[in-house]
Amino acid sequence: MGGIMRSSVCEGQYFCLITHKIEQRFEAFTLINLLRDKLIGFASDSLARLSLIVTLHCKVNLLMRTSHSAIASSVKPTDEVKSMQQDSIIEAKQVRSQQTQEKLLNALNNCLKEDFFEHISIAQITEQAGVSVGTFYRRFKNKEALLPYLYQDFGTQQRAWVLSLTTVKQESLAQQVQYIIDNCCEFLSSNAGVLRTLHLNSRLYPEILPTSQLSERSQEYREISAMLIQHSTEINHPQPSMACDMATFMMINGLIEKILYQDLTPAIASPLVMAEHCKQLGAMIVGYLTAKPE
Question: Which of the pair, 293 or 235, is modelled with greater confidence?
Answer without folding.
Answer: 235
